[in-house]
């Protein structure tokens, strides 16, 4: 039996990456755990729900205690005028930027951008599957899931096709630095990410200037030309927001496609059902978001006042981590939580978070993954898992396979 305060350390131990779920079950027995470093780990559905709606919980890194290194760096950057992405802002700044960006995304303020991308998404997916022709082994991550979301964000932002390859390189460098454990993020990776951030910011600055001259129907053009009383966003905010969309929508979507494919191959009966019933993909993807969520826990938040829950006080200034994946299997919320039920009803999971920071890209992510999976099950003949469990990425927060090798008989 692991001591409760050692459980989070265990979750971050790579040895447990393939199956962290028994650790989450152990955690839920002490739904608020204080660790030796003064941080708090929360793991029950009810308490996480409560905290995601509690204004005393801040996502703003600048509000971390003076001793926190990332907090210090964020305050320094901010004082030099670098804007904070809205994922890391509290109200009212968060709400202002999110509202402006949401306006461009779809009804009631503008045409449904996501739905209008349906054809383009399908085309991207089919192009990737066409490349499986003549091969007997493919890697679902490298050959399929990985290239897809970056291309989608580029289309959304109106990045010309010939520049897409550069976005793939930048996205790789930025995502590599996202590991929540500082020791897992080497100096070299941090520098690679800094360099990528610099390059992409410069590129986006130029693209914004170009779109200002010649606006198109893409999201960036809409943001630039929003002359509503609140708009448009300041140029620096535009750059930071575009980069946020790229990072937030990249590895998360890769992992959802890979986790979904792995789950399908582990449940051949579900794969068969999906082949004959394309509509099943809608509840199926929701169940993967509950059962194998790409975001296992939230990035560190800070209590900005004392918060007392179930008799435990989290003191002001404490780091707080919300274990979304543990809540998703909480038996007090979900009947039979350890079972994968592809058409589960009443599935209000935390796969996209909750509260004011609920995933901005959820409608796009859902559509991308639904289209990808339906195309995959229909076109790939006799897919078989080569290694189970597959090798996972290092990252415990953004969890997913590094490779997912499957043997196939062909494509149709
Ligand atoms: C926020 C998951 C795809 C943009 C979040 C959060 C989660 C999440 C859990 C909440 C984070 C928190 O509370 O700290 C996912 C998953 C995805 C996905 C699992 C894919 C399967 C996308 C895409 C985009 C996107 C495609 C961009 C188009 C964002 C943004 C936020 C966010 C901007 C911050 C929202 C805010 O702070 O108001 N996402 N996401 N995500 N996501 Fe996603």
Automatic annotation (TrEMBL):
PROSITE patterns: CYTOCHROME_P450. GO terms for molecular function: heme binding; iron ion binding; monooxygenase activity; oxidoreductase activity, acting on paired donors, with incorporation or reduction of molecular oxygen. Residues 61-79 have a biased composition (Basic and acidic residues). Pfam families: p450. Coiled coil: none annotated. Keywords: Heme, Iron, Metal-binding, Monooxygenase, Oxidoreductase. Residues 61-88 are annotated as: Disordered. The keyword Glycoprotein does not apply. The keyword ATP-binding does not apply. Belongs to the cytochrome P450 family. This is Cytochrome P450. It comes from Ktedonosporobacter rubrisoli.
């Amino acid at each position: 039996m692991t001591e409760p305060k050692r459980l989070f350390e265990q979750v971050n131990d790579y040895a447990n990456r393939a199956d962290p779920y028994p650790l989450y079950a152990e955690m839920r027995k002490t739904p608020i755990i204080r660790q030796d470093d003064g941080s708090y780990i929360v793991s029950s559905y009810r308490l996480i729900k409560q905290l995601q709606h509690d204004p005393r919980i801040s996502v703003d890194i600048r509000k971390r205690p003076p001793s926190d290194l990332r907090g210090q760096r964020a305050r320094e950057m901010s004082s030099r005028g670098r804007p904070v992405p809205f994922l890391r802002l509290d109200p009212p700044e968060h709400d202002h930027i999110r509202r402006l960006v949401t306006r461009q995304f779809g009804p009631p303020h503008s045409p449904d951008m996501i739905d209008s991308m349906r054809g383009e998404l399908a085309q991207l997916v089919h192009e990737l599957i066409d490349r499986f022709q003549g091969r007997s082994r493919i890697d679902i991550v490298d050959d399929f899931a990985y290239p897809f979301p970056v291309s989608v964000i580029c289309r959304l932002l109106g990045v010309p096709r010939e520049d897409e390859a550069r976005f793939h390189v930048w996205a790789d460098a930025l995502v590599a630095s996202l590991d929540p454990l500082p020791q897992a993020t080497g100096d070299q990776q941090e520098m690679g990410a800094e360099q990528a951030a610099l390059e992409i910011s410069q590129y986006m600055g130029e693209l914004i200037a170009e779109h200002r001259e010649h606006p198109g129907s893409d999201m960036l053009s809409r943001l630039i030309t929003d002359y509503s009383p609140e708009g448009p966003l300041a140029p620096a905010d535009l750059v930071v927001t575009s980069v946020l969309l790229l990072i937030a929508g990249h590895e998360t979507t890769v992992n959802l496609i890979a986790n979904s494919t792995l789950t399908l191959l582990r449940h051949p009966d579900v794969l068969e059902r999906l082949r004959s019933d394309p509509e099943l993909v809608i509840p199926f993807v929701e169940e993967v978001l509950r059962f194998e969520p790409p975001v296992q826990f939230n990035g560190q938040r800070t209590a900005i006042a004392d918060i007392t829950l179930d008799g435990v006080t989290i003191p002001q200034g404490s780091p707080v981590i919300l274990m979304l994946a543990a809540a998703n299997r909480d038996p007090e919320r979900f009947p039979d939580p350890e079972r994968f039920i592809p058409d589960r009803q009443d599935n209000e999971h935390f796969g996209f978070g909750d509260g004011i920071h609920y995933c901005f890209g959820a409608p796009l992510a859902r559509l991308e993954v639904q289209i990808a999976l339906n195309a995959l099950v229909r076109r790939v003949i006799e897919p078989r898992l080569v290694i189970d469990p597959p090798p996972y990425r290092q990252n415990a927060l953004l969890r997913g396979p590094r490779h997912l090798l499957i043997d196939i008989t062909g494509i149709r």
